[in-house]
Amino acid sequence: MANIKSAKKRVITSAKRAERNQAVKSAVKTEIKKVRAAIEAGNKEEAAKALVNATSAIDKAESKGVLDRKSTRL
């Protein structure tokens, strides 16, 4: 653990950000899995809704800086 006050704060802040980023990435992956599952099931309506939700989740993650802007564009 760091001895300097600002370094201690950065360690705590970094841990919080890493936890939040992991949660957002997990949510994005879940939305993508829902799209793929709906496509494999052959349910077009559900797949279309899931695709909209997944696109929204990806865009939100991009805007928060969790995902790289270049990797989220098709």
Verbal overview:
Helix content is 78%, strand content 0%. The chain has helices at 5-41, 44-64. It is built from 2 helices and no strands. It is elongated, with a radius of gyration of 17 Å. The protein has 74 residues and is mainly alpha-helical.
Number of helical stretches of at least 4 residues: 2
Mean pLDDT across all amino acids:
92
| Helix coverage percent | over 70%
- Percent range for β-strand residues: under 5%
The coarse silhouette is elongated
Radius of gyration: 17 Å
Which consecutive residue ranges, at least 5 long each, have pLDDT under 50?
Answer: none
Class from secondary-structure proportions: mainly alpha
The count of β-strands is 0
Task: Please outline the helices and strands.
Layout: H1 5-41, H2 44-64
Annotation keywords:
74 residues; 78% helix; mainly alpha; elongated
Offer a concise description of the structure.
The protein is mainly α.
